[in-house]
Design a protein that fits this description.
This protein has ten helices and 16 strands. It is of the alpha/beta class. The protein has two domains: 229 residues, Rossmann fold (3-Layer(aba) Sandwich); 115 residues, Rossmann fold. The strands form four sheets. Strands 4-1-5-6-7-8-11-12 form an eight-stranded mixed sheet, sandwiched between helices. Strands 13-14-15-16 form a four-stranded parallel sheet, with helices on both faces. It has a two-stranded antiparallel ribbon with strand order 2-3. Helix 3 packs across helix 4. The longest helix is centred in the N-terminal third of the chain and has 16 residues. The protein is elongated. The chain starts with a helix and ends with a helix. The relative contact order is 0.10. The N terminus is likely disordered.
Length: 373
Amino acid sequence: MNGTDRCGRREDRTDRDRSAARADGGRPLVAVVACGGTIASEPGDDGAAPEKTGADLVEAVPAVTDHARVTTREVCSQPGFDVRWKDVLATATAARDAVGEGPDDAGGPSESGEAGESAEERADGVVVTHGTDTLADTAFALDLLSDLDAPVVVTGAQRRLDEPSSDVPANLALAVRAAADDRFAPGVHVAFDDELHAARDVVKGHSNALSTMTSPEAGPVATFTRAASRLLRRPERGVSLDPLADAVDDAAAVPEVPVIHSGTGVGAGALERALDAGVGGVVVEGTGLGNVTGALGDAIGEAVGSVPVVVAGRPPAGPTEPVYGTPGGAVTLAEHGVTFAGDLPAAKARVALALGLAADLDRDGIEALFEPA
């Protein structure tokens, strides 16, 4: 879709949905797609676990209705560390359906909503509530799978609603606020701690700090205060390839793609075992600019003929780049035929490769997954 078509479609939807006469003054409609995580968790004798629904969260944070009318949809109730591919694909489908861009171009009914709302009314934006452990992975997967004419904003929390200084209210209200603002389309974004980050760039940078979401080098797309927001760079989808959702509709089609780490003393064993297990592809987390040990480099040279191998770098910022020779240097790996992940960390390179293989992309298509828009 070209830029003119995109702007026209967004303008049409804005004229139809936001400017239409409504008893509530024509406020935008935001669909909250609930996926579990700390944001939905409650304490228990065996540890905390997701229990709250999206409707529970909206009810607990009345400030969300300051920015939009809100409906909710339930996809799953998983902790962030146990999100499955079927959950990711279902989330992408729920987002597309909510804004009327699903395969049948019809939004399904919401689980709950304000009285008097039409179940078929198209949302102006989508919020996904999710566990923080893999929030950045899912946000990037949604960016790969879809290209919607409405903001899609993923959020979560580091502290449950029952904990002191919970960040649930602020993050959920921020996400709805951003999803109601059509400046933040296209692309998928992550709302956390008064900042909005691009799905391609964001990572979880701290295990428990409230400011955990960060975008090394790139920085946030926007920052927010109580009364205003500041756009720091243009919101955009993080990949130039066409959306993969129509080509990936079955979680069983997503192959196993392990991450093999290089480091001091690493040999070929882990890669050889992965290949023996019949994996669909491999991501190697190299050191520095994308280098590996000599033993692992030799094994990669033998592996590239049977499966795609993508090499990422270990540093939290900076791209991969062929500079060094020797058996494990990135120059040698390039000669073997690996694909370099560029500025994507290994975790996101794994998401991209797995979805690309599920979509049956050719070599050029796989390469395009790692090129920013």
